[in-house]
Amino acid sequence: MDFCENITPVILAGCLGTRLRPLISDLPKVLAPVNGKPFLTYLLDQVNATGFSQVVLCTGYKGEVVRQIIGDIYTGLTVRYSYEKEPLGTGGALRLAHHLVSTDNVLVMNGDSYVETDLAAYLSWQTGNRFKASILLTRVADAGRFGSVRVNQDNLITCFEEKKDDSSSGLINGGIYMINKSLLEMIPSGKRYSLEQEFFPALAGKCLYGYPCEARFIDIGNPESYSRAEKFLKDVIRIRSNYSNE
């Protein structure tokens, strides 16, 4: 698709996966097996299906294992790697990969979550509105577990609410972002920095917009959610296959 030419997809794949260690041994979290294949490959398949020809992986813990398993070409995608020698957080990892981004915009995806959505529709909305930054938001039944996001009538993100013991539904950060490359210079180089805790709150109420969607969401951040990923992603593949055969 035309808009893909001015967007570089970047997947944050440096997660340690400490809470999953009893289940995945010493693998990095993004390589946690789901239905016999690394979780990361589902995200790469989603990027590929959207029409991109290249992707950047921000790796950290056991980054060499990620490269060994994924390789430099994945189902037609050219894969480039940015490796952090010490944990830099989501923002610091993205800043480190700055030199691998040659386009005006960056599509950033968390490597430990998956949103069953049409990425092309989100990217078309973002580029059509020419927003400096946006977050794909999805509605879940237990927003308190993740922390909810508030938007106004223009979809401008006004604030982020902390995680709390509340089982009510709400919009959450789906772990998929579009950011203009110029904004990456706000992130300090070589320092630990969080997109979720520092970067996005600084943009709230100014130039950060939300794209609300009713899409199913899964993360593999803890053993309970990881155990649900197998059925979730089987359903994703089945639905995608049925759609392709229509």
Short summary of the structure?
The protein is an alpha/beta fold and 246 residues long.
Topology:
Blueprint: E1 7-13, H1 21-24, E2 33-34, E3 37-38, H2 39-50, E4 54-59, H3 63-70, E5 73-74, E6 77-83, H4 89-96, E7 105-110, E8 113-116, H5 119-129, E9 133-140, H6 143-146, E10 149-151, E11 157-160, E12 170-180, H7 195-203, E13 208-213, E14 216-219, H8 223-245
Parallel strand pairs: 1-4, 1-7, 4-6, 9-13
Antiparallel strand pairs: 2-3, 5-6, 7-12, 8-14, 9-12, 10-11
Characteristic key phrases:
246 residues, alpha/beta, Spore Coat Polysaccharide Biosynthesis Protein SpsA, Chain A, eight-stranded mixed sheet, two-stranded antiparallel ribbon, 8 helices
What profile does the largest beta sheet have?
8 strands, mixed
User: What's the number of helices?
Assistant: 8
Under CATH at level 1, the class stands as Alpha Beta
Strand content: 25-35%
Supply Rg. 17 Å
Please state the overall shape, judged from the principal axes of the Cα atoms: globular
Q: What is the correct CATH architecture?
A: Alpha-Beta Complex
What does this molecule look like?
- The protein is α/β, with parallel strands linked by helices.
- It has a single domain, classed as Spore Coat Polysaccharide Biosynthesis Protein SpsA, Chain A, CATH 3.90.550.
- It is 32% helix and 29% strand.
- The protein is built from eight helices and 14 strands.
- The protein has helices at 21-24, 39-50, 63-70, 89-96, 119-129, 143-146, 195-203, 223-245, and strands at 7-13, 33-34, 37-38, 54-59, 73-74, 77-83, 105-110, 113-116, 133-140, 149-151, 157-160, 170-180, 208-213, 216-219.
- It has an eight-stranded mixed sheet. Strands 2-3 form a two-stranded antiparallel ribbon. A two-stranded antiparallel sheet has the order 8-14.
- Helix 4 crosses helix 7.
- The radius of gyration is 17 Å and the shape is globular.
